[in-house]
Amino acid sequence: MRFDRLPLVLLISTALLTATALSLLMGAGQTVDWLPAGTPRQSAPVKLPQALRPLPSQALALTWQQSMFSPQRRPDLITGKGQGSLDGIRLTGVIITGQAQWVLLRMPGKHTLKLAVGSTLDNGWTLTGASPQHATFSHQGQTRELRLPLLRLPPPSKAPLITLPDVPTP
């Protein structure tokens, strides 16, 4: 009787796999051999990061003169005396960097103005405080607050959904 090579290879492979499975079931390979304990190494000393010091206004002045993202940007316009109220003035932005605080205002003449806390508008109102959402102005004992506009999504459309015509398949 002559054996072919393929059944013999399959028989030997089955026997080896069975022997491996039995040895694993009996507990082979379940012991752990640890290396001997070494001496602990010294870690590098922890150095706290240095606090950034606030930049002086002169260092930030160039940013207000020319923006790197908008080459057409020009310095704020100088306006004449206003009517003494905040009517028509809108708050468009608030910038807070460390101790420095500025607000960006849209004036009634459609030009924008950058104002630092403590500065006074041409109409006499003084910027007394700024937070990320609003700016506080005071004038002759009165206090007014301008808030950033809260942008909202438009209401959902009431138009019916688009439907495809019912066309039978060919």
From TrEMBL:
Source domain of life: Bacteria
Protein name: General secretion pathway protein GspN
Organism: Pseudomonas saxonica
Lineage per the UniProt record: Bacteria, Pseudomonadati, Pseudomonadota, Gammaproteobacteria, Pseudomonadales
